[in-house]
Amino acid sequence: ETGVTQTPRHLVMGMTNKKSLKCEQHLGHNAMYWYKQSAKKPLELMFVYSLEERVENNSVPSRFSPECPNSSHLFLHLHTLQPEDSALYLCASSQDPPGRSGGRSAEQYFGPGTRLTVT
Amino acid sequence: AQSVSQHNHHVILSEAASLELGCNYSYGGTVNLFWYVQYPGQHLQLLLKYFSGDPLVKGIKGFEAEFIKSKFSFNLRKPSVQWSDTAEYFCAVNALNTGNQFYFGTGTSLTVIP
Fold this sequence. Notes:
The structure holds two protein chains of two kinds. Chain A is mainly beta. Chain A has one helix and eleven strands. Chain A has one helix spanning 98-101; strands spanning 4-7, 10-13, 18-25, 31-37, 44-50, 53-57, 64-70, 73-79, 87-94, 109-110, 114-118. In chain A, a hairpin with a 2-residue loop joins strand 5 and strand 6. Chain A is globular and about 40 Å long. Chain B is mainly beta. Chain B has no helices and twelve strands. Chain B has strands at residues 4-5, 10-14, 19-21, 24-25, 31-38, 44-50, 56-58, 64-68, 73-78, 87-95, 103-104, 108-113. The chains are: A mainly beta, B mainly beta.
């Protein structure tokens, strides 16, 4: 399988549940990203990982907990979410993060997203 | 606040019409600029990018964009659109003085009528 894959594609969870989103990239990239896409709002960058090290954390609530066990896999652990957290969560990867490469190899490849609904 | 603005939220064109989608940003210093496209039911994919050099960049499927530094703009153009260009278009900025941050606009929905 090529590109960036995400599972599950759809997830419905209650506010007291714990779930995880998974992202896998098959491109040999060194950087991975989590974004949140809500209706009528810009994509919001949540986290950036470079070689399994978190390099950006954009004031995301602690109920979202990322994990990057290796350069090909990225998880987003979810617990005690709120209804306003319902959104499309996108994973992306790039050869390098822009801060390392000056942007030249920061072209991002996106996965299909996980549509999350919090009830 | 710093931002990326796409003023056209929804554009409807007939086939063969010319397209220009606006993108303005408010970040200073050196910037890397991107346009991404999302066709119905598909992933976001890169349309074109600007890092340096010639401010007029060409991308896939006949799209081009022009970086005008003095106007903080990176407008997307296509001289003649096709029905298959119906999609959502997103402008994105990486300002190098913000390190690893990417900022996206809200997107422009383009509908091309056959």
